[in-house]
């Protein structure tokens, strides 16, 4: 009898333990509400790769504030791959590279916070990061505590060296670990869209990459010798235009860090920025602020375009039509208005003569409509910041190769 009672007690305790465990697992998941509009900031990777250090971060933070970037909405400074030493310490903790960051990470993060900015770090779900530094696999809860103790606000979590694990599980584990660590940290999934994160990522992270890496070109594919490709910004826009219904406040399709100010022409930079705004992509600059030209700053801080990106409806725009190589992208906005971008995808100058009445807009994913035969909208040119007539007349303009015109249609 005693034996039976003991067995019963053990079973009950085990059952309760499991039940509790299950309940707790369900309660975890991402920190909600940290990215109700697409996150804006700066990331080191596109320009600096692993050549990052304390001086670069401090100078970038200083310029983020002094240049007006912070006032325009850019507030995350994110260190990508290369911030760590090659080995964990004897307790298994991550170690910032002592040469690049001689004063450690805490002092630097405090500095960034003192400027009114937020700070992000990078790691990877695999055994090692893409550049070969210690990955988080098997250390999820320990690393999450490490970030929380440092005061990190954003974690970009990559997908190299992940043989044998599944993306949904690996990202869910890290999401739970971050929540458990108790500090609100924006969780940025970076598995390149290989495992359709838009289908399972909403309770897990605040944004997810939807493609392989960006390349500073308009429409090219750059083939790396190791058999993978990086993509021009229009290639990325095109390849993921059909998953827009999965993106929205606090769960964004991430079209990758921007290449504005890197190797493209100013015209192409403008188109790139306009597209990222139309697509409601996170706006993470990837240029060297210390060498930023005035025209680059003007593009990145364009208030009208940023308002399109940060619109609280949070709807990813879509391609309405193409006429003679000029694409027309549209995005519904919260005040009943629409953003419309004409983009010349060709290598030649083009003439636009757009008859609004022939192009009613129907957003099948979100249920918005604009019928220009019934309703007239006033046009505001968002780059020139001036009125451009109304939808009563055809919209007539010339547009050089790779350029954009972005209008706001106000009912
Ligand atoms: C992957 C990511 C990039 C960058 C590098 C770092 O390629 O997609 O954005 O983080 O790794 O190694």
From TrEMBL:
Q: State the signal peptide span.
A: 1-19
| InterPro entries linked | Aldolase_TIM, GH, Glyco_hydro_27, Glyco_hydro_27/36_CS, Glyco_hydro_b, Melibiase_C
Coiled-coil region(s) at which residues? none
EC number(s) per entry = 3.2.1.22
Q: Which superkingdom is the protein from? A: Bacteria
Provide the reaction this enzyme catalyses.
Hydrolysis of terminal, non-reducing alpha-D-galactose residues in alpha-D-galactosides, including galactose oligosaccharides, galactomannans and galactolipids
Molecular function per GO: hydrolase activity
Give the transmembrane region(s): none
The UniProt keywords, alphabetically, are: Disulfide bond, Glycosidase, Hydrolase, Signal
Please report a single Pfam family linked to this protein.
Answer: Melibiase_2
Tagged with keyword Hydrolase? yes
* PROSITE patterns linked: ALPHA_GALACTOSIDASE
Report domain Alpha galactosidase C-terminal positions.
Answer: 324-409
Q: Which family does it belong to?
A: Belongs to the glycosyl hydrolase 27 family.
* Protein name per UniProt: Alpha-galactosidase
* Source organism (scientific name): Flavobacterium polysaccharolyticum
Upper taxonomic classification of the species?
Bacteria, Pseudomonadati, Bacteroidota, Flavobacteriia, Flavobacteriales
């Amino acid at each position: 009898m005693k034996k039976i009672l003991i067995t019963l007690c053990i079973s009950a305790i085990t059952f309760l333990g499991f039940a509790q465990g299950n309940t707790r697992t369900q309660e975890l998941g991402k920190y909600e509400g940290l990215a109700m509009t697409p996150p804006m900031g700066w990331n080191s990777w596109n320009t600096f790769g692993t050549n990052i250090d304390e001086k670069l971060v401090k100078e970038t933070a200083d310029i983020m504030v002094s240049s007006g970037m912070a006032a325009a909405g850019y507030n995350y400074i994110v260190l990508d791959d290369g911030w760590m030493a090659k080995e964990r310490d004897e307790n298994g903790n991550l170690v910032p590279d002592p040469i690049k960051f001689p004063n450690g990470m805490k002092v630097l993060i405090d500095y960034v916070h003192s400027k009114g900015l937020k700070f992000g770090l990078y790691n990877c779900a695999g055994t090692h990061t893409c550049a070969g530094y210690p990955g988080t696999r098997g250390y999820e809860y320990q690393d999450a505590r490490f970030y929380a103790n440092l005061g990190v606000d954003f974690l970009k979590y990559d997908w190299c060296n992940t043989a044998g694990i599944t993306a949904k599980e690996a990202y869910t584990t890290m999401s739970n670990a971050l929540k458990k660590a108790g500090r609100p940290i924006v969780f940025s999934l970076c598995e390149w869209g290989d495992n359709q994160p838009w289908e399972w990522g909403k309770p897990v992270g605040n944004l997810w990459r939807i493609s392989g890496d960006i390349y500073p070109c308009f429409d090219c594919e750059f083939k790396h010798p190791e058999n993978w490709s990086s993509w021009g910004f229009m290639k990325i826009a095109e390849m993921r235009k059909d998953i827009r219904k999965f993106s929205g406040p606090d769960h964004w399709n991430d079209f990758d860090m921007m290449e504005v100010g890197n190797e493209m022409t100013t015209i192409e930079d403008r188109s790139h920025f306009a597209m990222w705004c139309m697509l409601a992509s996170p706006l993470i600059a990837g240029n060297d602020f210390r060498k930023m030209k005035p025209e680059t700053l003007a593009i990145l801080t364009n208030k009208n375009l940023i308002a399109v990106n940060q619109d609280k409806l949070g709807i990813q725009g879509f391609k309405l039509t193409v006429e003679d190589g000029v694409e027309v992208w549209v995005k519904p906005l919260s005040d009943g208005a629409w953003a419309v971008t004409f983009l010349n995808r060709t290598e030649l100058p083009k003439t636009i003569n757009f008859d609004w009445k022939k192009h009613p807009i129907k957003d099948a994913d979100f249920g918005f409509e604009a019928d220009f035969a019934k309703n007239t909208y006033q046009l505001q040119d968002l780059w020139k910041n001036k009125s451009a007539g109304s939808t009563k007349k055809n919209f007539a303009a010339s547009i050089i190769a790779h350029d954009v015109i972005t209008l706001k249609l106000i009912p």
